[in-house]
Amino acid sequence: MPDTTPTGLTRLAFGGDYNPEQWPESVWHEDVRLMREAGVTMVSVGIFSWALLEPTPGTYEFGWLDRLLDLLHEHGIRVDLGTPTVAPPAWFYRAHPDALPVTADGTRYEFGSRGAICHSNAGYRAAAAAITTALAERYGAHPALALWHVHNEYGVPVSACYCDSCAAHFRRWLAGTYGTVDELNEAWGTAFWGQRYTDFGQINPPRATPTVGNPAQALDYKRFADATLRENFRMERDILHRLSPGIPVTTNFMTALSQCDSIDYWAWGREVDLVTNDHYLITDGRRTHVNLAMAADLTRSVAGGAPWLLLEHSTSGVNWQPRNPAKAPGQMARNSLAHVARGSDGAMFFQWRQSRRGAEKFHSAMLPHGGTDTRVWREVVELGASLDSLSPIRGTRTQADVAVLWDWHSWWAQNLQWRPSEDHDPRERADAFYEALYDRHLTVDFAHPEADLSRYPLVVVPALYLMTEAAGNNLEEYVENGGTLVVSYFSGIVDEHDAVHEGPYPGALRDVLGLTVEEFSPLLKGERVRITGPDGSELSGDVWTEFVVPRGAETVWTYADGLTAGHPAITRHRHGEGSAWYVSTRLDVHGLDALLGWAADDAGIAPRADLPRDVEVVCRAGESGAFLFAINHSALDAKVPLEAHGTELLTGEGAAGHLGVPAGAVRVVRLDD
User: Fold this and answer.
1) What pLDDT is stored for residue 61 in this prediction?
2) pLDDT at 285
3) Kind of pairing between the strands at 308-312 and 344-349
4) What residue spans in the chain does CATH classification 3.20.20.80 cover?
5) Sign of CA dihedral 521, 522, 528, 530
6) Between 312 and which of 258, 278, 304, 396 could a Cys-Cys bridge form, CB atoms 3.0 to 4.6 Å apart?
7) Hey, what CATH topology would domain 402-603 get?
8) Pairing state of beta strands 538-542 and 528-532?
9) pLDDT tens across 127-144, in order?
10) Which of 54, 153, 236, 476 is catalytic?
11) CB–CB of 580/588 below 8 Å?
């Protein structure tokens, strides 16, 4: 079996995408010298190099890559070697114009960007297999090789194609999934609007239609598109495993919920040897460090709690948002070490040397246009030294307090057309609940709804519109055995085929929540409702209300106005040894904090009021010891209480009682036994 960590890497991974083909070969020696100065331990190579490696069909030019890998090896720099299958050459598209993807409205994309691929295309699959085989045969045993990097960011920018090749592939996938067309008709509910099929050959992808199409068909096409990408990944991975045994194979994920919604990362996490992730801050005015923490926690969860690797982020500003501010002094290190705190065994960047040409020339890099006499470069060198001092944490695991349930299939289904309110955004609810937990200084694991939840005292369900019967049974068992569950509105409504569970809402969650919902009552834009507690205090909600009927649950808070006035707004159901909370409106920040405070009390989680806001405290532990990360995202110096003595690894100072963390700084304490 391949290793699950980069081969030969004895320290944390530090480096970035290296694209030397953009520069004269005379620059390479300067690059390697500066990499050594910065403390670089690994670089990613060859991701977009297909046109140089195979300039004409079947003719390979490896000389430049031979010299590059030998040079990197000579200077002790490990290599994450890419298969360049995200960017086929121009000659390939001239020979296979049908490999360019087609949109749902019939538009065929053109060559000239990246990721313009129909993944069902036989010509593409053959060409991808050939270049992967050639690379593995030549470099599979190269002494610099630490990791294989297949493709790049699957699903970005094209996740699905709607051409005739995909239509034929989709029909084969459906036949394999359902067996008979009668089973498909039942699952898709094709009796509605007279859509019944008598043969798989009658089925096409969900292309443009006069009005809304079949939601079950659209949901299955998302599954098919994701499965097709995974087929191609597995094809390349298996070639690499066969020809380069022992070297781990990965592909870079984009788990941040805002950046890639077309991939089921629970499924992908089982296919790679090492989970890696790319993360870029969305600078929209919100607290970017909270989304960063969320992405890191989700990536670690996809890795099953094991260490993972941040394979790309930015040293400063990016180039693809409407406005691209620079990172503040110290923010790059703070961002990097926040990922490390939450499980990454390193911090890699896009890219090493900033490009002079092309679409990403204004994207920041480790070595900027301004060279070494720049703030970014000085911070890069400082970060390299910091990561070197943190080498003892390699292989340790981040310790979580609570679980948040998330399922990409539910997200896909929720975002289809014709739902009760377009203002209900499942990602917004996930963000909001996560931020409320973050502000209570609780470290989060994400979990699949059917996963074992027994080790978590508190489980939160921010938005799971689609929930299988098995998931509902799993949550009921969790609560019966003493767990505390918090569920937000419009969850448990449909099964895996987007069919409403038989009986009253909320379907799969009726029994564990001890209630039914007679009717949804979404609010108009700008409308708000008041909800009152038994002591007369008030909370506020918007977007959504429901007519909730308790069936064993107690009413904790009640709607005070609006159409649902007098009906329960927040309930608690004592079920078995545990309890299940339900909130039927969109609470604001204050309301979410209150709700999670009550649930945390039920779960026996002590409040952490002694930790300041925006001071992140996370623990990693393993055979090499226990490590406490304190990351101060605020503008004020902070003190973090310590329950044990230890040594601060970045300064070498002893730590006891309280740990001082200057504004904007990071401290990492190795705790004594």
Assistant:
1) 98
2) 78
3) parallel
4) 13-162+205-398
5) positive
6) 278
7) Rossmann fold (3.40.50)
8) antiparallel
9) 999 999 999 999 999 999
10) 153
11) no
Give, in words, the CATH class of 13-162+205-398.
alpha beta
Distance CA 509, CA 101 (A): 40
Report how far Cα 6 is from the mean position of its chain's Cα atoms: 21
For CATH 2.60.40.1180, the residue range(s) in the chain are: 615-671
Please report where in the chains the tokens 């406490």 appear, as a residue: 628
Which pLDDT tens digit goes with each residue over 424-472?
999 999 999 999 999 999 999 999 999 999 999 999 999 999 999 999 9
Number of C-beta neighbours around residue 145 at 10 A:
23
Position 238 pLDDT exceeds 80: yes
Q: Over the stretch 521-542, which tens digit does the pLDDT of each residue have?
A: 999 999 999 999 988 899 999 9
Sequence-separated (6 or more) residues with CB below 8 Å from residue 582: 487, 489, 509, 513, 515, 548, 553, 570, 571, 572, 573
CA torsion 660-662-668-669 (nearest 10°) is -10
Catalytic residue among 54, 236, 312, 616: 312
Q: Annotated catalytic, 480?
A: no
First to last CA, the chain: 34
Please confirm, yes or no, whether 428 is among the known catalytic residues: no
Start and end residues for every CATH 3.40.50.880 domain found in the chain: 402-603
Q: How many CA atoms lie within 13 A of 568 on its CB side?
A: 23
Q: What is the pLDDT of residues 560-592, one digit of tens each?
A: 999 999 999 999 999 999 999 999 999 999 999
**pLDDT tens across 185-210, in order?**
999 999 999 999 999 999 999 999 99
**Fold type of domain 615-671:** Immunoglobulin-like (2.60.40)
What pLDDT was estimated at residue 257?
Answer: 63
Distances (CA, A) of 450 to 380, 468, 539, 554, 666: 42, 8, 32, 27, 36
E strands along 238-324, which residues? 249-250, 252-253, 276-278, 308-312
Q: What is the mean pLDDT of the chain?
A: 97
